[in-house]
Structure prediction request, 239 residues.
Amino acid sequence: MATLDLTFTPCPDEPLALPANTSAHIWQIDLDVARDAMLSASEQAHAKAMRHAEKQSHFVAARSALRLILSKYVGGTPENLPLATAAQGKPFLDMAGAPQFNVTHARGKALIAVAPMAVGIDLEFARPVRQLDRLVEHYFAPAEEKALTALPDDQRAQAFLAAWTRKEACLKATGEGIAGGLHRYHVTLRANEHAQLISIDGNETAARAWTLHAFRAFEDGQAAICAATPSLSLQGFSL
Ligand SMILES: CC(C)(COP(=O)(O)OP(=O)(O)OC[C@H]1O[C@@H](n2cnc3c(N)ncnc32)[C@H](O)[C@@H]1OP(=O)(O)O)[C@@H](O)C(=O)NCCC(=O)NCCS
Prediction:
């Protein structure tokens, strides 16, 4: 099976132990479900300045969910957890012994990965891809471009999105973000292949330090997680 079928169990009431070495927790959150806001003062100000009502409500829901989830691992009041942002924009918890995490959101849904090592996560929903050839030429490694163009037309948008989520998960794990260069991360993309990071800048040894998994979320969402470990098991929770 090329894409993992994760089970998402309801959020436990009790505190949670950090995921063990070589494992990660994945949280699935519906941002349109009404919940208490749990934001820091600066996040409240940021939300207030947002003009688009839906974006504002999704930002509040996603940040509050993140704080609530992290407090389950490290204790404390969600609003007061010291969230900080690294140079390229990746949020992190600025306290000793804290887990690492990453957030992705699309169409009112969010996924949060929590792990003891660097981790990145990405979510996309099936959609037509405009200017696919141009994007592939620009952002894909030559071997990926070859694999994609060899596919029948009706499989190409799906394979493109599979590759895109996998590459973005890698760049979010390292914290580089898209500016780090999607073409540098060579991943598998065919529907019958396991998700795998094949090489980074052509270096297969460097890629083996990371694990990439693809999984389904929210029924029709295509997601990928990448973590700095040679093997990775996953456990799903829903908030
Ligand atoms: C982070 C990035 C990959 C987001 O991609 P996306 O598909 O639009 O959005 P996603 O929903 O998957 O992820 C967004 C979340 O990623 C996290 N994030 C932001 N920067 C990140 C980075 N460098 N690495 C990892 N995670 C990052 C944030 O938690 C963000 O959510 P939030 O803003 O609500 O806190 C992309 O915007 C990016 O590369 N940003 C880095 C800065 C950059 O290169 N800017 C280019 C300006 S020219």
In short: The chain has one domain: 1-31+97-239. The first helix runs from residue 41 to 49.
